[in-house]
Amino acid sequence: MELADLAKLGMKHVANHAAQALYLHSGMNWTRPTNFCGLVTHQCNLFCGFCYDRKDVDPAKEMSFEEWKQALLSVKELAGNYFISFSGGEVMLMKWFPDLLHHCNENGIKGGVLTNGTAINNKTAPRLVAAEPFEIALSIDGPNAEVHDLIRGRKGSFTMVTRAVSLFRRERDRQGKKFPIIIRCVINKFNLSSLPKMVDLLHEIGGTAIIFQPVHEITEKVMSDWQRETGASSDSLRENFWIGADQLEELDRIVGRLLELKTAGAPIMNTEHDLKMLAYHFRAQRPENMARTCTVSLRNFFIQPNGDVQFCHDWPPIGNLRRQSAKDIWLSDHAESLRKKAIHCEKQCLVNCSAQRTLLEKVSMAMHLLRTA
Protein backbone atom coordinates (compact mmCIF):
# COMPACT_ATOMS: atom_id res chain seq x y z
CA MET A 1 0.00 0.00 0.00
CA GLU A 2 1.49 3.33 -1.07
CA LEU A 3 1.67 6.41 1.17
CA ALA A 4 -0.20 8.42 -1.46
CA ASP A 5 -3.10 5.93 -1.41
CA LEU A 6 -3.27 6.08 2.38
CA ALA A 7 -3.20 9.87 2.27
CA LYS A 8 -6.15 10.00 -0.13
CA LEU A 9 -8.08 7.54 1.99
CA GLY A 10 -7.25 9.54 5.10
CA MET A 11 -8.57 12.76 3.55
CA LYS A 12 -11.89 11.07 2.79
CA HIS A 13 -12.17 9.91 6.38
CA VAL A 14 -11.39 13.42 7.63
CA ALA A 15 -14.00 14.96 5.34
CA ASN A 16 -16.65 12.44 6.33
CA HIS A 17 -15.80 12.89 10.00
CA ALA A 18 -16.71 16.57 9.60
CA ALA A 19 -19.87 15.65 7.66
CA GLN A 20 -20.86 13.25 10.44
CA ALA A 21 -20.53 16.01 13.02
CA LEU A 22 -22.69 18.29 10.85
CA TYR A 23 -25.36 15.59 10.53
CA LEU A 24 -25.43 14.90 14.27
CA HIS A 25 -25.83 18.59 15.07
CA SER A 26 -28.12 19.73 12.25
CA GLY A 27 -29.56 16.69 10.46
CA MET A 28 -28.04 17.87 7.14
CA ASN A 29 -26.66 14.84 5.32
CA TRP A 30 -23.49 15.59 3.40
CA THR A 31 -21.98 12.26 4.34
CA ARG A 32 -20.67 9.76 1.85
CA PRO A 33 -19.66 6.21 2.78
CA THR A 34 -15.98 5.63 3.52
CA ASN A 35 -15.98 2.01 4.72
CA PHE A 36 -16.84 -0.51 1.99
CA CYS A 37 -17.17 -4.30 2.19
CA GLY A 38 -18.28 -6.66 -0.57
CA LEU A 39 -19.45 -10.15 0.34
CA VAL A 40 -19.01 -11.83 -3.02
CA THR A 41 -20.65 -15.14 -2.09
CA HIS A 42 -22.05 -17.12 0.83
CA GLN A 43 -20.63 -20.30 -0.68
CA CYS A 44 -17.68 -21.81 1.19
CA ASN A 45 -15.56 -24.97 1.18
CA LEU A 46 -14.77 -24.91 4.91
CA PHE A 47 -17.02 -25.68 7.87
CA CYS A 48 -16.04 -23.16 10.52
CA GLY A 49 -18.31 -23.79 13.48
CA PHE A 50 -18.82 -20.10 14.28
CA CYS A 51 -19.87 -19.09 10.75
CA TYR A 52 -23.34 -19.09 9.20
CA ASP A 53 -22.15 -19.37 5.59
CA ARG A 54 -22.56 -22.83 4.11
CA LYS A 55 -21.77 -24.34 0.73
CA ASP A 56 -25.42 -25.35 0.12
CA VAL A 57 -26.71 -21.79 -0.47
CA ASP A 58 -28.53 -20.93 -3.69
CA PRO A 59 -25.99 -19.42 -6.15
CA ALA A 60 -28.84 -18.18 -8.35
CA LYS A 61 -29.65 -15.55 -5.72
CA GLU A 62 -26.13 -14.11 -5.81
CA MET A 63 -24.90 -11.39 -8.16
CA SER A 64 -23.00 -12.39 -11.28
CA PHE A 65 -19.63 -11.06 -12.39
CA GLU A 66 -21.32 -8.48 -14.64
CA GLU A 67 -23.68 -7.39 -11.89
CA TRP A 68 -20.78 -6.91 -9.49
CA LYS A 69 -18.91 -4.79 -12.05
CA GLN A 70 -21.90 -2.52 -12.53
CA ALA A 71 -22.56 -2.33 -8.80
CA LEU A 72 -18.99 -1.23 -8.07
CA LEU A 73 -19.12 1.46 -10.76
CA SER A 74 -22.40 2.70 -9.29
CA VAL A 75 -20.69 3.06 -5.91
CA LYS A 76 -17.92 5.07 -7.56
CA GLU A 77 -20.53 7.54 -8.85
CA LEU A 78 -21.55 8.08 -5.23
CA ALA A 79 -18.18 8.06 -3.47
CA GLY A 80 -15.50 8.68 -6.08
CA ASN A 81 -12.41 6.46 -6.00
CA TYR A 82 -12.64 4.20 -2.96
CA PHE A 83 -11.25 1.18 -1.12
CA ILE A 84 -13.35 -1.98 -0.74
CA SER A 85 -12.59 -5.22 1.11
CA PHE A 86 -13.96 -8.38 -0.53
CA SER A 87 -14.78 -11.53 1.41
CA GLY A 88 -17.34 -14.32 1.58
CA GLY A 89 -17.95 -17.24 2.09
CA GLU A 90 -14.84 -17.98 0.09
CA VAL A 91 -14.25 -15.48 -2.73
CA MET A 92 -11.98 -17.80 -4.70
CA LEU A 93 -14.84 -20.23 -5.34
CA MET A 94 -15.89 -17.59 -7.86
CA LYS A 95 -13.48 -18.26 -10.74
CA TRP A 96 -13.98 -14.72 -12.00
CA PHE A 97 -12.97 -13.02 -8.75
CA PRO A 98 -9.40 -12.13 -9.84
CA ASP A 99 -10.97 -10.46 -12.89
CA LEU A 100 -13.20 -8.44 -10.56
CA LEU A 101 -10.09 -7.18 -8.78
CA HIS A 102 -8.62 -6.23 -12.17
CA HIS A 103 -11.86 -4.37 -12.94
CA CYS A 104 -11.44 -2.42 -9.71
CA ASN A 105 -7.83 -1.53 -10.49
CA GLU A 106 -8.74 -0.33 -13.97
CA ASN A 107 -11.47 1.96 -12.63
CA GLY A 108 -9.75 3.75 -9.75
CA ILE A 109 -11.12 1.39 -7.12
CA LYS A 110 -8.72 -0.23 -4.64
CA GLY A 111 -9.79 -3.78 -3.85
CA GLY A 112 -8.57 -5.98 -1.02
CA VAL A 113 -9.42 -9.60 -0.35
CA LEU A 114 -9.92 -11.96 2.58
CA THR A 115 -9.52 -15.64 1.69
CA ASN A 116 -9.23 -18.92 3.56
CA GLY A 117 -6.32 -19.82 1.27
CA THR A 118 -7.56 -23.27 0.22
CA ALA A 119 -7.93 -22.33 -3.46
CA ILE A 120 -4.62 -20.49 -3.78
CA ASN A 121 -2.08 -22.21 -6.02
CA ASN A 122 0.55 -21.50 -8.66
CA LYS A 123 -2.15 -20.29 -11.07
CA THR A 124 -4.45 -18.26 -8.81
CA ALA A 125 -1.77 -16.50 -6.73
CA PRO A 126 -0.16 -14.72 -9.74
CA ARG A 127 -3.60 -13.58 -10.97
CA LEU A 128 -4.53 -12.01 -7.64
CA VAL A 129 -1.15 -10.33 -7.20
CA ALA A 130 -1.25 -8.95 -10.76
CA ALA A 131 -4.58 -7.27 -9.92
CA GLU A 132 -2.67 -5.06 -7.43
CA PRO A 133 -4.86 -5.43 -4.34
CA PHE A 134 -4.36 -2.93 -1.54
CA GLU A 135 -4.04 -5.93 0.78
CA ILE A 136 -4.44 -9.69 0.86
CA ALA A 137 -5.73 -11.11 4.13
CA LEU A 138 -5.84 -14.79 5.04
CA SER A 139 -7.80 -16.47 7.82
CA ILE A 140 -5.54 -18.45 10.15
CA ASP A 141 -6.90 -19.39 13.56
CA GLY A 142 -4.07 -21.38 15.08
CA PRO A 143 -0.27 -21.70 15.02
CA ASN A 144 -0.49 -25.35 13.93
CA ALA A 145 -2.74 -27.78 12.09
CA GLU A 146 -4.18 -29.25 15.29
CA VAL A 147 -5.78 -25.95 16.32
CA HIS A 148 -6.54 -24.38 12.94
CA ASP A 149 -8.02 -27.47 11.28
CA LEU A 150 -10.25 -28.12 14.30
CA ILE A 151 -11.70 -24.61 14.19
CA ARG A 152 -12.03 -24.51 10.39
CA GLY A 153 -13.57 -27.98 10.13
CA ARG A 154 -11.30 -29.36 7.41
CA LYS A 155 -8.14 -31.39 7.74
CA GLY A 156 -5.25 -30.04 5.71
CA SER A 157 -6.56 -26.46 5.68
CA PHE A 158 -3.64 -25.20 7.79
CA THR A 159 -1.12 -26.55 5.30
CA MET A 160 -3.02 -24.96 2.41
CA VAL A 161 -3.38 -21.51 3.97
CA THR A 162 0.23 -21.24 5.20
CA ARG A 163 1.40 -22.31 1.75
CA ALA A 164 -0.83 -19.60 0.28
CA VAL A 165 0.92 -16.93 2.37
CA SER A 166 4.27 -18.09 0.99
CA LEU A 167 2.94 -18.08 -2.56
CA PHE A 168 1.62 -14.54 -2.21
CA ARG A 169 4.88 -13.33 -0.72
CA ARG A 170 6.88 -14.92 -3.53
CA GLU A 171 4.60 -13.58 -6.26
CA ARG A 172 4.44 -10.11 -4.74
CA ASP A 173 8.23 -9.87 -4.75
CA ARG A 174 8.56 -11.43 -8.22
CA GLN A 175 6.07 -9.00 -9.74
CA GLY A 176 7.45 -6.02 -7.84
CA LYS A 177 4.12 -5.16 -6.21
CA LYS A 178 3.64 -3.47 -2.85
CA PHE A 179 0.84 -4.53 -0.53
CA PRO A 180 0.60 -6.05 2.95
CA ILE A 181 -0.19 -9.72 3.57
CA ILE A 182 -2.40 -9.74 6.66
CA ILE A 183 -3.30 -12.66 8.91
CA ARG A 184 -6.76 -12.52 10.51
CA CYS A 185 -7.30 -14.70 13.57
CA VAL A 186 -10.71 -15.33 15.18
CA ILE A 187 -10.29 -15.55 18.95
CA ASN A 188 -12.23 -18.39 20.59
CA LYS A 189 -11.93 -20.95 23.38
CA PHE A 190 -9.86 -23.37 21.27
CA ASN A 191 -7.04 -21.00 20.32
CA LEU A 192 -6.93 -18.66 23.31
CA SER A 193 -3.82 -20.14 24.91
CA SER A 194 -1.91 -20.17 21.60
CA LEU A 195 -2.59 -16.58 20.48
CA PRO A 196 0.91 -15.27 21.31
CA LYS A 197 2.36 -18.04 19.14
CA MET A 198 0.46 -16.58 16.18
CA VAL A 199 3.02 -13.76 16.11
CA ASP A 200 5.81 -16.34 15.73
CA LEU A 201 3.86 -18.05 12.94
CA LEU A 202 3.43 -14.73 11.15
CA HIS A 203 7.20 -14.27 11.01
CA GLU A 204 7.79 -17.88 9.95
CA ILE A 205 5.48 -17.77 6.93
CA GLY A 206 6.33 -14.24 5.79
CA GLY A 207 3.18 -12.31 6.66
CA THR A 208 3.13 -8.55 7.19
CA ALA A 209 0.86 -8.11 10.21
CA ILE A 210 -1.86 -9.82 12.22
CA ILE A 211 -5.33 -8.75 13.34
CA PHE A 212 -7.16 -10.52 16.17
CA GLN A 213 -10.96 -10.62 15.88
CA PRO A 214 -13.13 -12.15 18.64
CA VAL A 215 -15.81 -14.69 17.84
CA HIS A 216 -19.34 -13.25 17.48
CA GLU A 217 -20.98 -11.63 20.43
CA ILE A 218 -23.68 -14.02 21.58
CA THR A 219 -26.89 -12.06 21.13
CA GLU A 220 -30.39 -13.44 20.66
CA LYS A 221 -30.13 -12.70 16.94
CA VAL A 222 -26.87 -14.61 16.60
CA MET A 223 -28.34 -17.54 18.51
CA SER A 224 -31.44 -17.55 16.29
CA ASP A 225 -29.41 -17.36 13.05
CA TRP A 226 -27.04 -20.06 14.28
CA GLN A 227 -29.88 -22.45 15.08
CA ARG A 228 -31.70 -21.77 11.80
CA GLU A 229 -28.61 -22.18 9.60
CA THR A 230 -26.97 -25.15 11.34
CA GLY A 231 -29.84 -27.01 12.95
CA ALA A 232 -27.77 -27.10 16.13
CA SER A 233 -29.07 -26.36 19.60
CA SER A 234 -29.38 -22.65 20.35
CA ASP A 235 -26.60 -22.71 22.93
CA SER A 236 -24.05 -24.72 20.93
CA LEU A 237 -22.26 -21.61 19.65
CA ARG A 238 -21.56 -20.45 23.18
CA GLU A 239 -20.67 -23.96 24.34
CA ASN A 240 -18.35 -24.65 21.43
CA PHE A 241 -16.50 -21.38 20.81
CA TRP A 242 -17.30 -18.69 23.36
CA ILE A 243 -14.68 -17.95 26.02
CA GLY A 244 -16.57 -18.66 29.21
CA ALA A 245 -16.15 -17.86 32.89
CA ASP A 246 -13.63 -20.66 33.42
CA GLN A 247 -11.21 -19.05 30.92
CA LEU A 248 -11.56 -15.37 31.81
CA GLU A 249 -8.42 -15.25 33.98
CA GLU A 250 -6.48 -16.84 31.13
CA LEU A 251 -8.02 -14.32 28.72
CA ASP A 252 -6.76 -11.44 30.88
CA ARG A 253 -3.29 -12.98 30.95
CA ILE A 254 -3.22 -13.54 27.17
CA VAL A 255 -4.42 -9.98 26.46
CA GLY A 256 -1.65 -8.71 28.72
CA ARG A 257 0.89 -10.75 26.78
CA LEU A 258 -0.39 -9.45 23.42
CA LEU A 259 -0.10 -5.89 24.72
CA GLU A 260 3.49 -6.60 25.76
CA LEU A 261 4.28 -8.01 22.31
CA LYS A 262 2.72 -5.01 20.58
CA THR A 263 4.66 -2.58 22.79
CA ALA A 264 7.84 -4.47 21.93
CA GLY A 265 7.19 -3.94 18.22
CA ALA A 266 5.26 -7.07 17.19
CA PRO A 267 3.22 -6.47 13.99
CA ILE A 268 -0.18 -6.58 15.73
CA MET A 269 -2.56 -4.20 13.96
CA ASN A 270 -5.16 -4.04 16.73
CA THR A 271 -4.95 -0.83 18.71
CA GLU A 272 -4.24 -1.06 22.43
CA HIS A 273 -7.86 -0.03 22.96
CA ASP A 274 -9.09 -2.94 20.81
CA LEU A 275 -7.03 -5.46 22.77
CA LYS A 276 -8.20 -4.13 26.13
CA MET A 277 -11.82 -4.34 24.99
CA LEU A 278 -11.53 -8.12 24.54
CA ALA A 279 -11.93 -8.58 28.29
CA TYR A 280 -15.23 -6.67 28.18
CA HIS A 281 -16.41 -8.42 25.00
CA PHE A 282 -16.23 -11.92 26.46
CA ARG A 283 -17.73 -10.75 29.76
CA ALA A 284 -20.62 -9.14 27.83
CA GLN A 285 -19.92 -5.89 29.66
CA ARG A 286 -19.48 -2.27 28.61
CA PRO A 287 -16.90 0.11 30.06
CA GLU A 288 -18.47 2.85 32.17
CA ASN A 289 -16.86 5.59 30.09
CA MET A 290 -17.89 4.15 26.70
CA ALA A 291 -20.63 6.39 25.34
CA ARG A 292 -19.76 7.08 21.72
CA THR A 293 -22.60 7.85 19.34
CA CYS A 294 -22.89 5.08 16.75
CA THR A 295 -22.01 6.45 13.31
CA VAL A 296 -21.93 3.28 11.20
CA SER A 297 -24.99 4.52 9.30
CA LEU A 298 -22.98 7.58 8.22
CA ARG A 299 -19.95 5.70 6.85
CA ASN A 300 -20.52 1.96 6.19
CA PHE A 301 -21.62 0.47 2.86
CA PHE A 302 -21.74 -3.32 3.08
CA ILE A 303 -22.75 -5.14 -0.12
CA GLN A 304 -24.30 -8.60 0.29
CA PRO A 305 -24.04 -11.34 -2.39
CA ASN A 306 -27.62 -10.67 -3.54
CA GLY A 307 -27.01 -6.92 -3.94
CA ASP A 308 -28.52 -5.83 -0.63
CA VAL A 309 -26.74 -2.90 1.02
CA GLN A 310 -26.45 -2.56 4.80
CA PHE A 311 -24.56 -0.21 7.08
CA CYS A 312 -24.51 -2.84 9.83
CA HIS A 313 -25.30 -6.56 9.86
CA ASP A 314 -27.68 -5.97 12.77
CA TRP A 315 -29.84 -3.58 10.72
CA PRO A 316 -32.09 -4.24 7.68
CA PRO A 317 -30.91 -3.44 4.13
CA ILE A 318 -31.19 0.17 3.02
CA GLY A 319 -31.54 -0.83 -0.64
CA ASN A 320 -30.40 -3.21 -3.38
CA LEU A 321 -27.82 -2.53 -6.10
CA ARG A 322 -29.60 -4.79 -8.57
CA ARG A 323 -32.53 -2.38 -8.58
CA GLN A 324 -31.12 0.97 -7.46
CA SER A 325 -28.04 3.10 -7.88
CA ALA A 326 -25.72 3.50 -4.93
CA LYS A 327 -26.55 7.21 -4.75
CA ASP A 328 -30.29 6.55 -4.68
CA ILE A 329 -29.78 3.98 -1.93
CA TRP A 330 -27.61 6.22 0.27
CA LEU A 331 -29.88 9.26 -0.05
CA SER A 332 -33.21 7.42 0.06
CA ASP A 333 -35.94 8.18 2.59
CA HIS A 334 -35.73 4.54 3.72
CA ALA A 335 -32.00 4.84 4.47
CA GLU A 336 -32.57 8.12 6.28
CA SER A 337 -35.29 6.56 8.41
CA LEU A 338 -33.00 3.71 9.49
CA ARG A 339 -30.08 6.12 9.92
CA LYS A 340 -31.99 8.24 12.43
CA LYS A 341 -32.73 5.13 14.47
CA ALA A 342 -29.25 3.64 14.19
CA ILE A 343 -27.41 6.64 15.59
CA HIS A 344 -29.25 5.96 18.86
CA CYS A 345 -28.27 2.28 18.95
CA GLU A 346 -27.16 1.33 22.46
CA LYS A 347 -25.33 -1.87 21.55
CA GLN A 348 -21.94 -0.12 21.60
CA CYS A 349 -19.95 -2.69 19.59
CA LEU A 350 -16.48 -3.12 21.07
CA VAL A 351 -14.16 -5.03 18.74
CA ASN A 352 -15.99 -6.06 15.56
CA CYS A 353 -16.34 -4.69 12.03
CA SER A 354 -18.60 -1.87 13.24
CA ALA A 355 -16.57 -0.84 16.28
CA GLN A 356 -16.06 2.90 16.57
CA ARG A 357 -12.51 4.17 16.01
CA THR A 358 -11.22 7.69 16.34
CA LEU A 359 -9.31 9.35 13.52
CA LEU A 360 -6.14 9.01 15.60
CA GLU A 361 -6.69 5.25 15.96
CA LYS A 362 -7.22 4.92 12.19
CA VAL A 363 -4.03 6.85 11.48
CA SER A 364 -2.14 4.67 13.94
CA MET A 365 -3.26 1.48 12.17
CA ALA A 366 -2.36 2.91 8.75
CA MET A 367 1.10 4.00 9.87
CA HIS A 368 1.70 0.58 11.37
CA LEU A 369 1.03 -0.99 7.97
CA LEU A 370 3.51 1.35 6.30
CA ARG A 371 6.20 0.46 8.83
CA THR A 372 5.74 -3.30 8.52
CA ALA A 373 5.04 -3.69 4.78
Low-confidence stretches: none
Largest sheet properties: 9 strands, mixed
Radius of gyration: 20 Å
Order of helices and strands: HEHEHEHEHHEHEHHHHEEEHHH
Describe the structure.
The chain is α/β, with parallel strands linked by helices and 373 residues long. It has helices at residues 3-26, 65-79, 97-106, 124-130, 145-152, 157-175, 195-205, 220-230, 236-241, 248-263, 272-283, 326-330, 333-342, 359-372, and strands at residues 35-39, 83-87, 110-115, 136-139, 181-187, 209-214, 300-303, 308-310, 319-320. It is globular and about 50 Å long. It contains 14 helices and nine strands. Strands 6-5-4-3-2-1-7-8-9 form a nine-stranded mixed β-sheet.
What's the layout of helices and strands?
Blueprint lengths: L2 H24 L8 E5 L25 H15 L3 E5 L9 H10 L3 E6 L8 H7 L5 E4 L5 H8 L4 H19 L5 E7 L7 H11 L3 E6 L5 H11 L5 H6 L6 H16 L8 H12 L16 E4 L4 E3 L8 E2 L5 H5 L2 H10 L16 H14 L1
Parallel strand pairs: 1-2, 1-7, 2-3, 3-4, 4-5, 5-6
Antiparallel strand pairs: 7-8, 8-9
Helix pairs in contact: 1-14, 2-3, 3-4, 4-6, 10-11
Quick overview:
The protein has 373 residues and is an alpha/beta fold.
Properties at a glance:
373 residues, nine-stranded mixed β-sheet, 45% helix, 11% strand
